């Protein structure tokens, strides 16, 4: 069953990694997908692969002007916005003492400010429609401690989700956060990382890390009408690690 049939869905950071799989799954479920990313080459390539129901827009998620352009472009093409997935994110593998203020603010702007801008940008459209779903990709580091900067922003995304859900619920707009654990992406298959990840996986109750499809399946569920009574909630995909 195509649970997202004819829904128009914006996915930030959609050119690769989790965002790419979210776009592919959404297309499979019948959505019209707008992939936004700073990586123009990969974004255009993915949109071409996905066909006529996919559109790529180059997008700096920290720019309010870029957000305005995304909204105007999507409305001009498809005349509505049903779903926003705030997926774009980043971090630095640095200890606290080595993290500069510029480093820290880049994490804040991409992981946190972009989510605020995204919610703000689609709110007017979704209010007029009296319908919409916003999905904010946080992390298990938005529930428990992790790297400085990354954890701070992922906790903020969790709180922003609840605040926005409270304000937008009267307009039939649902806002939820997704909290993945360790995900099997090309980044963690690198030799210098894989051994540490394999060791960490032994501590996970399910004894494995997540596949990107498992996160994308949750995103598609929350984007669909099947999740019609879920808002302001955290959806955790971590194999049980935060239950320990």
Automatic annotation (TrEMBL):
Domain of life: Bacteria
GO molecular function list: diacetyl reductase ((S)-acetoin forming) (NAD+) activity
UniProt-listed GO biological process terms: bile acid metabolic process
Recorded catalytic activity of this chain's protein: (S)-acetoin + NAD(+) = diacetyl + NADH + H(+)
InterPro entries according to UniProt: NAD(P)-bd_dom_sf, SDR_fam
Family the entry assigns: Belongs to the short-chain dehydrogenases/reductases (SDR) family.
Known role: Catalyzes the irreversible reduction of 2,3-butanediol to (S)-acetoin in the presence of NADH.
Cited NCBIfam families: PRK07231.1
Protein name in UniProt: Diacetyl reductase [(S)-acetoin forming]
Taxonomic path: Bacteria, Bacillati, Bacillota, Bacilli, Bacillales
């Amino acid at each position: 069953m195509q649970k997202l049939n004819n829904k128009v869905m914006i996915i930030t950071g959609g050119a690769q990694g989790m965002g790419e799989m979210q776009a592919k799954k959404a297309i499979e479920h019948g959505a019209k997908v707008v992939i936004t990313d700073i990586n123009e080459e990969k974004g255009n390539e993915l949109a071409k692969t996905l066909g006529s129901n996919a559109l790529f827009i180059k997008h700096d998620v920290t720019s309010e002007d870029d957000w305005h352009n995304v909204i105007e472009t999507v409305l001009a093409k498809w005349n509505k916005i049903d779903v926003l997935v705030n997926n774009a994110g980043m971090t630095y593998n640095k200890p606290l003492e080595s993290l500069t203020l510029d480093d820290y603010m880049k994490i804040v702007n991409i992981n946190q400010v972009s989510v605020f801008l995204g919610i703000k940008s689609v709110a007017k459209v979704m209010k007029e429609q009296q319908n919409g779903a916003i999905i904010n990709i946080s992390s298990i580091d938005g529930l428990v401690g992790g790297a400085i900067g990354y954890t701070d922003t992922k906790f903020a995304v969790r709180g922003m989700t609840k605040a926005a859900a409270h304000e937008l619920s009267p307009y039939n707009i649902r806002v939820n956060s997704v909290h993945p654990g360790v995900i099997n992406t090309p980044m963690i298959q690198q030799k210098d990382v894989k051994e540490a990840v394999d060791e960490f996986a032994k501590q996970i109750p399910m004894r494995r890390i997540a596949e990107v499809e498992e996160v994308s399946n949750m995103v598609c569920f929350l984007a669909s009408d099947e999740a019609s009574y879920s808002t302001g909630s955290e959806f955790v995909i971590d194999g049980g690690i935060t239950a320990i």
